[in-house]
Amino acid sequence: MNEQDYITREIMAYTKERALRARAPLADRKEAQAQYMHSLQNELDALAERVSWLLDGSYGRGPSEIARRILASPRMNQPAAISILVADCEWLCPERHARAAWNKLSARQQQAVTETIRKAIK
To answer: Of 15, 60, 73, 79, whose CB is crowded by the most CB atoms within 10 A?
Structure first.
């Protein structure tokens, strides 16, 4: 198996895990959303640390490779996409619930989160 096959397999495995989390019981998804929301509101240092973990491959090759592809796409909203990946990897919060948590933040909080993620990416 060559490197590209390995990366493809890892991305597919992560995608399956992510799909399972999206179909988890609603109570589990809501709890994960609450934990993620708490971090967005109160623990920006922890969020930045998790972004660095994602980029370093601590959550596995699949999520790390997806993050690298996000960063290679300049037209993409990189902080939003990275935060969704981190929400899924660290807090097991599915994308839909991560977006809902983001939408509950005030404009000031959203700006603080965005800046934190941008700094962590650099």
So the answer is: 79
* Domain boundaries, position 116: 3-121
* Type of residue numbered 122: K
Is the Cα dihedral 96, 15, 24, 91 positive or negative? negative
Q: What residue has token string 């097991």?
A: 92
Number of domains in the chain: 1
54 contacts 4 by C-beta, under 8 angstroms: no
Residue 6: pLDDT band with limits 50, 70, 90: very high
> What six digits make up the tokens of 6?
């390995």
Specify whether the CB–CB gap between 7 and 61 falls below 8 A.
Answer: yes
Q: Chain-wide mean pLDDT for the chain?
A: 94
Say yes or no to pLDDT of 85 above 90.
Answer: yes
pLDDT of residue 82: 96
Query: Using CA atoms, how far apart are residues 122 and 119, in angstroms rounded to an integer?
Result: 5
**Distance linking the first and last C-alpha atoms of the chain:** 32
